[in-house]
Amino acid sequence: MNELKIGEHIIQLGETRKVNLPVAKLYTDADVNLPVYIIRGKKIGPTIFISAAVHGDELNGIEIIRRLINLKGFKVSIGSIIAVPMVNVYGVVNQSRYMPDRRDLNRSFPGSSKGSLAGRVANIFLKEIVAQCDYGIDLHTGAINRSNLPQIRAQLSDPHTLELAQAFGVPVVLNSDIIEGSLRDAAVATGTKVLLYEGGEALRFDEFSIRAGIKGILNVLRHLGMISKKQKMRVKQTPFIANNSNWVRASSSGIVTHHYQLGDQVKKAQILATIGGPYGETLGEVIATKSGVIIGKQNIPLVQEGEAMYHIAYFSEDDEHIADHIETIEEQLINDLSINEEIS
């Protein structure tokens, strides 16, 4: 497309623009706008959106976009990027996962221009941003007091989506069914291929997850031919695909002693954590039901019986090899990408 129109704004090829997309007013009569940052190459090509804070307390994605668009030498030569660092502006202001009407924005798509507040925001974002894009990367974290290992979740039965997920370059890709009412669900109707990136914990910056997110987005942009491939490339890391995962839950209530962390390999019947009482007595143990790799875990040292504690992914490959692979990539990212990295 020669012209890209978002709201009342027209952005031409070769132009970079910050625009505010009106959403709704607060009851104080103050306007609330969706911040949108557009970078257009000089040549027509793919259009991709990068979104963050669909859940307002998931802050890593905001920092990923902030660093990405300020990278030294970052230049889009072909196609267009539409970056939306705060989709749920209300949630970011209130440090809340939800919209003011207590609805989950990521269960409110496709929404309606005459629906609930969450539905109206979903509808505007879908029509003005998602529907204009060929691809999308939606950035998320774990919930409050839960951390996720950097991972891509996508519907891998689609060959093109699988190709993009592998290009992203994080160690774990999880085959994830599309949930009704989610952004990914609505994107199917617009023909937009969407990757969901998970990494870190709500209301916290996690450096590993931020760097993995930036690196992954750059990998996808290079794969699509939107940015230069002149930079010296490392050996391509092939992710491991998990077709199944499960949460292991607490056997009793009490104080937790964790024995395993994110990225660790676990074997069936191993003790993942011990749950004790306030006087030091052991009340229960959390046992792995299958062998796999921990891709999500609870961080708070207090637990209620039945509470989800460890998210374990199951692979057809050797789990020990995957755990070593995760550790290698983590070391590379910590020593590799900084906010001032040169792209060219």
Automatic annotation (TrEMBL):
Q: Which residues are in coiled coils?
A: none
Keyword Hydrolase attributed: yes
Q: Keyword Amino-acid biosynthesis: yes or no?
A: no
SUPFAM superfamilies the record matches: Zn-dependent exopeptidases
* GO molecular-function terms, A-Z: hydrolase activity, acting on carbon-nitrogen (but not peptide) bonds, in linear amides; hydrolase activity, acting on ester bonds; metal ion binding
Keywords tagged on the record:
Hydrolase, Metal-binding, Zinc
| Protein name, UniProt field | Succinylglutamate desuccinylase/Aspartoacylase catalytic domain-containing protein
